[in-house]
Amino acid sequence: MKPLHEIIRKPLITEKANMLKDAGQIVAFEVALSANKIEIKQAVEKAFDVKVKSVNTALYRGKVKRVGYNLGQRNNWKKAYVTLAEGHNIDFYGV
């Protein structure tokens, strides 16, 4: 298995992600494009010491951006929605 920091890039702490976390034990992460659901599940369980129920992934295409006369494109990225088992929780703030 790849190192954990190569699979899980960062947690997504947005308004939508916070609503999902409060409603249904779902946590969102930005993950590597090459990571599959099994690798994501194992990485989250090992990194945060929780039990994962399921993993859903979504691919996002990079936006085309313009800087003056030149056009460029942001990188493509992958988001993982991780559903935690009952009684498990991930606290990113540590409060």
Description:
The protein is an alpha+beta fold. The chain has a single domain (4-84), classed as RRM (RNA recognition motif) domain (Alpha-Beta Plaits, 2-Layer Sandwich), CATH 3.30.70.330. Helices cover 27% and strands 37% of the residues. The chain contains three helices and six strands, in the order αβαβαββββ. It has helices at residues 4-7, 15-24, 37-48, and strands at residues 8-11, 26-31, 52-60, 64-67, 70-73, 77-84. The strands form two sheets. Strands 1-2-6-3 form a four-stranded antiparallel beta sheet. The protein has a two-stranded antiparallel sheet with strand order 4-5. Strand 4 and strand 5 (70-73) form a beta hairpin. The chain is globular, with a radius of gyration of 15 Å. The mean pLDDT is 93.
List the helices and strands and how they pair.
Blueprint: H1 4-7, E1 8-11, H2 15-24, E2 26-31, H3 37-48, E3 52-60, E4 64-67, E5 70-73, E6 77-84
Key features of this structure:
two-stranded antiparallel sheet; 6 strands; 95 residues; globular; Alpha-Beta Plaits; 3 helices
Annotated CATH topology: Alpha-Beta Plaits
Beta strand %: 35-45%
What is the rounded distance between the termini?
32 Å
Q: Which strand order do you get reading across the main beta sheet?
A: 1-2-6-3
- Secondary structure tally, helices: 3
Structural category is alpha+beta
CATH architecture level-2 label: 2-Layer Sandwich
Low-confidence region ranges: none
Question: Could you give a short description of this structure?
Answer:
With 95 residues, the protein is an alpha+beta fold. Helix content is 27%, strand content 37%.
